[in-house]
TrEMBL record:
This is Phenylacetate--CoA ligase. Gene3D superfamilies: N-terminal domain of ligase-like. The keyword Ligase applies. It comes from the Bacteria. PANTHER family: CAPSULAR POLYSACCHARIDE BIOSYNTHESIS PROTEIN (PTHR36932:SF1). Keywords: Ligase. Signal peptide: none annotated. GO terms for molecular function: ligase activity.
Length: 460
């Protein structure tokens, strides 16, 4: 009973603090709050980790920038529970194989695997208390006013949440029972298997990758499904403009985004419709890949997690910062876009000189959007010889390919790069649990100019 009360308190405290507290008068006040939290974290949490013990009570800038490979190589040193990578992977892989995600390691530590879209799957750990804190923060961020009133009213039906993803987790299941009915729909299974159960469940909140939401919207448009969600939430993949349009047209609601990954709960859509980084719980340093365009890879420090430590952890997502503050009044960073992975960036030769010019996913998406009424979906893969472009269409592929070629030539000209060789092929789209990645570049290291203060300068 004591543990249940402690977990309930952790949830409520996180919910109330996130929903109604943590308001800052200025960007400077938010950054000052972060520094206080980082000092506390450095003195109280870092000494419990074998890797970070030597850095306790030191300034963040004195600590090394680490990568997923560093963490996997010294996994037990990066967590405070003494859990080895072999033990964590054994449990996580058994859960993946058996499709039973409820098991935990001693101490109630939940284990999960990332999808591995950028190499070896990362492993995440979360204690029971951390799961309840996460649930409180997450619900505080995503529930609209009407949904919150239903949760708080014991005489109203529970809010029903349908969640589509490749794998479930105790982390996600934590929200179930708190006046919220949570149901997981496994993307490993065919979509047809889920349709009847989904319609019967009649979710108030529908959470899925955007490619899945688009598919469900198409099914509703063809009268094969009928849902009336009050909220639609995009997770796990980049939300493309065509996905957003199709989803919002069918359900007449604004799609919101949750930026959640192994490294933590990184971002959310606010009431004004902007995507914010979750800086009340994270410290973000930019590794710039395109300073002029506001594009960077984030180096994160999560000062709330105590089991698995992410301290100056270098991620490979390319984010684009919005240059102006949000009208919602929050002073956390506002993103213009989550561009995709580092290896979603294409590199083409400059027209003048021997340099390579990065072509960012959002630039390609905008070009493809101009001609996308001629096809339903696409993939662009950079090869050593040029670009392979696959189109999902019932139309004349050579003719449509010429339209795509003309639009891309305009982009190459604008960016002053040499035109690569293009090859076109048909794309077969199938239901899949794999994350959709429309654009893939060659494997290469992205150059960057790391400047810890640059984000503050842009946002002030």
């Amino acid at each position: 009973m004591t543990n249940r009360l402690a977990n309930a308190f952790a949830f409520l405290h996180a919910f109330v603090r996130t929903r109604w507290g943590l308001r800052f008068r200025s960007r400077e006040a938010l950054l000052a709050y972060q520094q206080r939290q980082l000092r506390r974290f450095s003195s109280k949490v870092l000494p419990k980790s074998d890797f970070y013990r030597r850095y306790a009570n030191q300034a963040l800038a004195s600590m090394p920038v680490v990568t997923k490979r560093d963490m996997l190589n010294q996994f037990d040193a990066f967590n405070t529970a003494g859990i080895t990578l072999d033990d964590a992977r054994e449990l996580a892989l058994r859960a993946e194989t058996e499709r039973n995600f409820r098991s935990t390691l001693p101490g109630g530590v939940t284990i999960g695997l990332s999808s591995g879209t950028s190499g070896d799957p990362n492993v995440f750990l979360a204690s029971t208390r951390e799961r309840h804190v996460w649930a409180g923060i997450m619900l505080a961020r995503i529930l609209t006013g009407p949904m919150l009133r239903r949760v708080l009213n014991p005489f109203s039906p529970r809010v029903r949440v349908a969640f589509f993803l490749r794998a479930n987790s105790n982390l996600y299941e934590t929200v179930d029972g708190m006046r919220v009915g949570f149901r997981f729909f496994d993307l490993i299974a065919s979509m047809a298997v889920h349709l009847s159960a989904l319609a019967d469940f009649a979710p108030d909140i529908l959470i899925a990758p955007p490619s899945v939401l688009h598919r469900l919207a198409d099914l509703q448009r063809s009268s094969s499904l009928f849902l009336r969600p009050a909220q639609v939430i995009s997770v796990a993949e980049v939300l493309e403009p065509d996905d957003r349009t199709a989803i919002e047209q069918v359900w007449d609601v604004s799609v919101i985004q949750i930026y959640q990954c192994t490294e933590g709960f990184l971002g959310y859509t606010c009431g004004a419709g902007s995507l914010h980084l979750n800086e009340e719980f994270l410290h973000i340093e930019p590794a710039w890949v395109d300073h002029a365009g506001g594009r960077f890879e984030s180096i994160i420090t999560d000062f709330t997690r105590k089991t698995q430590l992410f301290v100056r952890f270098r991620m490979d997502d390319v984010l684009q910062i919005a240059p102006t503050p949000c009208t919602c009044g929050r002073h956390s960073l506002r993103l213009a876009a989550i561009e995709g992975r580092r290896d979603d960036v294409l590199w083409l030769s400059a027209k003048c000189g021997n340099s390579l010019i990065p072509i960012f996913p959002d630039q390609l998406r905008r070009a493809m959007l101009v001609v996308q009424e001629q096809f339903n979906d696409y993939r662009i893969e950079q090869r050593t010889w040029g670009l392979l472009i696959r189109l999902h269409t019932q139309g004349d592929l050579p003719k449509i390919g010429q339209s795509v070629r003309r639009e891309l030539e305009r982009l190459w000209s604008t960016l002053q790069v040499q035109s690569p060789a293009l090859s076109f092929d048909k794309l077969e789209v199938k239901d899949s649990a794999d994350k959709r990645r429309r654009i893939r570049g060659l494997e290469r290291s992205t150059p960057c100019n790391h400047s810890p203060d640059s984000i503050s300068e842009i946002s002030s």
